[in-house]
Amino acid sequence: MEKLLRVNMSNLTVKEEKVPEAYKDLGGRGLTSRILLDEIDATCHPLGEGSKLIVAPGILSGTKCPNSGRLSFGGKSPLTGGIKEANAGTPLAHKLASLGYKAIIVEGLPQGEGYHLLHISDAGARLEPAGELAGLGTYEFNSRVRGRYHEKIYCICVGPAGERKMANAGISCNDPEGGPGRFAGRGGLGAVMGSKKLKAIVVDTGKTFDAPVVDKEKYSEASKKFARILRENPVSGEGLPLYGTNVLMNIINEAGALPTRNFRYGRFEGASKISGEELSARAKARGGVGAPTHNCHPGCVIRCSNIYPDENGEALCSPIEYETAWALGANLEIDDLDVVARLNRICNDLGLDTIDAGGALGVAMEAGIIPFGDGQAAINLLEEVGKDTPLGHIIGQGADTVGKTYGVTRVATVKGQHLPAYDPRAVKGIGATYAMTTMGADHTAGYAVTMNVLKSGGYVDPLKAEGQVALSVNLQVATAALDAMGLCIFVAFALLDNPDGWPTVLDIWNAKNGDNHSIDDIMEMGRQVLRVEREFNRRAGFTPAHDRLPEFFRREPLPPHNTVFDIPPEEMDQMNEQFNMIK
Q1: CB-based contacts of 458: which residues, under 8 Å, 6+ apart?
Q2: What does the pLDDT read at residue 557?
């Protein structure tokens, strides 16, 4: 039986609850957002007693459906002040679902100073003192926690940034090898977890694919078909497995949409030096594991992750994603992949989102604190976060805080969250997503790069305003449904290109629960997620004025295309109105 696990940090109690009927068909982002709307005051302080952290595997997690191992975390963001969902690919999604947990609700604030661990096993769940494990970086924590228990446990944890309640703190999850680099990074949810004095959730079970399935034969048949669809797609079956997500570096650079020197230019001369092709070649030359051979969770057939080795062949960090290579590379005019990797490892160890960390460093460079292109200076400045200095706290709060502290106006944030690795003046569909999504600037909320650049499922000219808002909204709806299912966003390429894609996902869903849903039920699920999230943000005080890009994107032409972001705000507002009332 599926159940909710309610963890009250005020009185240090843990109890299991029956899943309400209203939550029966929800999972992942659909469930985290719904519980937040139902249970917390949207005006509460994100780090206060009234705030909650929700952890939920997807509807299909815990099964052998390909690429269904995404674990959602939800809360009120200390970065944006609105609703937030961030997810990570990790074995923990499968394991929690296999133990029957539909969601974990962490609430309240402890009275004492000590941190705690939530230990979950086949026998149940309990809170334990974290003791000497508090204060550790994620690498040492994961090593030492296995000494306390055993080698085959998996952990969700926060690093020092989360314990210090920094607004850019993410939540670390294990990869299949037990590494800490799978992050629900965006929006500062690590600070929410840290405010609860919950250092980690330790999951101790041998179960991985034990979630119940009603029609096992139909489920197996549909899952195998879905795997074939993913492998036959040129993006999910060839490009991503070959070079990982960083295959995009050269592609986006060629498209003139790679934000360079804090969004001044659309091309970076050193892009090839920090690309997926270079990463794979260097990893192989050093005897490490390149992108084609690593996955973030069991059951992934795309395998786009990587383990990057240092000069001695020892694992330095895992993974270096495209967004990270951009944020800590082209964005700062750094073209040394080893420097990017070291910055990435610092972020992983401290528990920082790499996108906003790169954004914070870029704004610091804009302010003249360190020069653009100086890799060692960037490393030194990021290490201030770990030293717990005043400057480190400013950097750890993210790009928006750095800009406000130093009077910098060129800060690429929406709702307080830094833009990812696509300039909205050259990929206007993703610009619409940045502005409109409930999440703050977030490419994964509606990945218009699919049709704007990669031409998956069609083509919408990325340099023209026409058609971009409708493209973004349709992708936001579909993505919300994928997030609820627990499916990786990279299955979207195959779903857009192959007419059998969505019907196969539908067959998997119906076979799992013995239901008779339709394709429109999937899309209505996505629409309802957006309605719930917009209602939360409305209650939190958000208005259409928050759905805007920084003004320099409308005023400054971007080389080499010399275009500005010119989608009318009124068009975005009118499209968003359809999500302004929940059902």
Answers
A1: 451, 496
A2: 98
